[in-house]
């Protein structure tokens, strides 16, 4: 069995175990910090770095926790983490060198990740409701 970072069914095999062992907290933290990146994109660029760094920290925590064991949510979760990770990194790098185009492209990628996270969350909730 191959396990990808951020996509494993660890620490729990059942959706309800994953959810109650911190999965719900990971989703909320990712949603909150990605939303903050989206919000600060309308403000001066000098505050973008902090928001994007906070998102990257939450991505690392989500990867450490492992992805949901839900077959339906797996791809959406992976796509969300990839978008947050790459977009957040581009936001930080672009902001650091005052390259607004690069930072903005990173933020747009984070925004795409928000919709992927919403889809993953919907699939996870569907699995939880089925139990």
Please give a handful of descriptors for the protein shown.
mainly alpha; 76% helix; elongated; 0% strand; single chain; 131 residues
Overview of this structure, please?
- With 131 residues, the chain is an all-alpha fold.
- Helix content is 76%, strand content 0%.
- It is elongated.
Protein topology:
Blueprint: H1 15-40, H2 48-65, H3 71-96, H4 100-129
Q: How do you describe this structure in short?
A:
The chain is built from four helices and no strands. It has helices spanning 15-40, 48-65, 71-96, 100-129.
Task: Report the strand count.
Answer: 0
Portion in helices: over 70%
Distance between the termini: 26 Å
Radius of gyration, CA atoms, in whole angstroms = 15 Å
Our count of helices gives 4
SS strand fraction: under 5%
Described by strand count, sense and barrel closure, the largest sheet is:
none
Shape: elongated
Low-confidence stretches: 1-12
SSE sequence, one letter per element: HHHH
Average pLDDT for all residues: 89
Structure classification:
mainly alpha
């Amino acid at each position: 069995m191959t396990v990808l970072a951020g996509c494993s069914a660890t620490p729990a095999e059942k959706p309800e175990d994953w959810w109650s062992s911190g999965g719900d907290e990971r989703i909320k933290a990712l949603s909150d910090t990605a939303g903050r990146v989206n919000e600060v994109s309308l403000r001066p660029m000098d505050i973008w770095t902090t928001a994007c760094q906070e998102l990257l920290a939450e991505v690392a925590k989500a990867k450490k926790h492992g992805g949901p064991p839900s077959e339906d949510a797996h791809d959406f979760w992976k796509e969300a983490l990839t978008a947050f990770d790459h977009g957040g990194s581009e936001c930080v790098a672009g902001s650091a060198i005052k390259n607004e185009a690069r930072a903005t492209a990173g933020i747009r990628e984070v925004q795409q990740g928000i919709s992927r996270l919403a889809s993953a969350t919907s699939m996870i909730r569907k699995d939880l409701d089925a139990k």
